[in-house]
Amino acid sequence: MSNxxxxxxxxxxxxxxxxxxxxxxxxxxxxxxxxxxxxNFETLLYQVIKASGAQTSGETKTNSAFSVGTGVRIINADxxxxxxxxxxxxxxxxxxxxGAGFFQVLMPDGRIGYTRNGAFGRNAEGSxxxxxxxxxxxxxxxxxxxxxxxxxxxxxxxxQNPGAVEAEEVGQFQLAxxxxxxxxxxxxxxxxxxxxxxxxxxxxxxxxNGFGSLVQGALESSNVNVVQELVDMIxxxxxxxxxSKAISGVDDMLRFISQNL
Length: 261
Prior knowledge:
By secondary structure, the protein is of the alpha+beta class. The protein has two helices and 20 strands. The mean pLDDT is 92. The chain folds into two domains: 2-81 and 224-260, no CATH class; 86-220, no CATH class. The strands form eight sheets. Strands 7, 8, 11, 15 and 18 form a five-stranded antiparallel sheet that branches. It has a three-stranded antiparallel sheet with strand order 12-13-14, with no helix packed on it. Helices cover 23% and strands 31% of the residues.
């Protein structure tokens, strides 16, 4: 019976972790470029009491094994990179990716971070940065006093200087993608970093090699579906309650034995 308690306890731990994943998804429902997480479960080891095909007589064998499971655990939480809605912001420095690809950002520790959050601004030197002040890579500098900023679908950044007839090209956005995007490690601030599981980044201009296009004056909203998350939350609550009742049931059985035998 103590084994049954242990199995139910693993269920409580797993459902508690799943609830944390769901809560994080809901907390980031309005985070630009956020990609929802999905908790994945796997069974723990089985206790094989009688193997399948064990001899039951001189001429017969068992058709199936007698194996008892020892519980469950969450093995990982996948990032689901489905496209979020493109929402107009009417800000010329807001950029979204329609399709595959991540913006590249130079982080304070020297690593390159990857993000879908295109809410950009300018620092004191005129370079495009994230809201946290991290510089976009390759670096794009916007001169002071320009009257118009244009970012084309293929990533060319051009500006209109006062009194000039022709627009001046000042930079080129490049996107990065990975053989296994789910292998990227989230580190907060809407940033992901490369890992051995993700593979080496492939860098190209928008529209090239299957990459998505850029949309100026718009942001990609979170791909969290609130209704689905609420359904998952109810399901998790019910599973947690059932595992809790299993522990209570085993406790009642042990109490009955101690009081009556």
